[in-house]
Amino acid sequence: MPWSPIKKFPGVLERLRLWGYEKEVPISELKKALMIETGIIKAETLGRYIRVMEELGYIQRKNDRIVLINNASGGM
Fold first, then answer.
1. Structural domain total, the chain
2. Closest by Cα among 25, 26, 30 to 8
3. Looking at the domain assignment, is residue 75 inside a domain?
4. Which long-range contacts (CB under 8 A, 24 or more apart) does 45-48 make?
5. Beta strands in the chain (DSSP E)
6. Is position 40 within any domain?
7. Among 9, 17, 57, 61, which one is most buried in terms of CB atoms within 10 A?
8. What is the CATH number of the domain that holds 32?
9. How far apart are CA 19 and CA 24, in angstroms?
10. Separation between Cα atoms, residue 42 and residue 21, nearest integer Å
């Protein structure tokens, strides 16, 4: 099976928790964690993966700058 950033989503959430974000996280910090865990740096691609994280149930948008971390950590 080819490499997929989706497999890295639990690691992204764990990194955010280590940084002290248990329930809410600024999107800027979510992007940083995604960059570190996946190696992806292109802003458009990061935005797409944030939308995928939302669709899979890992996060939920609170507003334009903040997302909520779901306790179930998605469906994967």
1. 1
2. 30
3. no
4. none
5. 24-26, 59-61, 66-69
6. yes
7. 9
8. 1.10.10
9. 12
10. 24
